[in-house]
Amino acid sequence: HMLSRGVSTLTTGITDGKSVEYEDVEEVHISDLNLCPLVMCAVYCPSGIEVDAKGCSTCICKDDSIII
């Protein structure tokens, strides 16, 4: 419900040609979806990186990637 409302509003903003409306809508749209902040991890993990409850990267390697 929230997603479809955001998309339809976004389309209206583009149609109106008002960039300010587009920016306002995009800000709301992002918060509705709870997107992760853009995080660049400087680590390479063969088995992948741990994620938090929202599925966002924590930059911590999963346990099975530790090779002794």
TrEMBL record:
Domain Antistasin-like: 36-61
Transmembrane regions listed in the UniProt entry: none
Keyword Electron transport: no
GO molecular function: serine-type endopeptidase inhibitor activity
Entries under InterPro entries matching the protein: Antistasin-like (IPR004094), Hirudin/antistatin (IPR011061)
Alphabetical keyword list: Protease inhibitor, Serine protease inhibitor
Protein's UniProt name: Antistasin-like domain-containing protein
Gene that specifies this protein: ORF4114
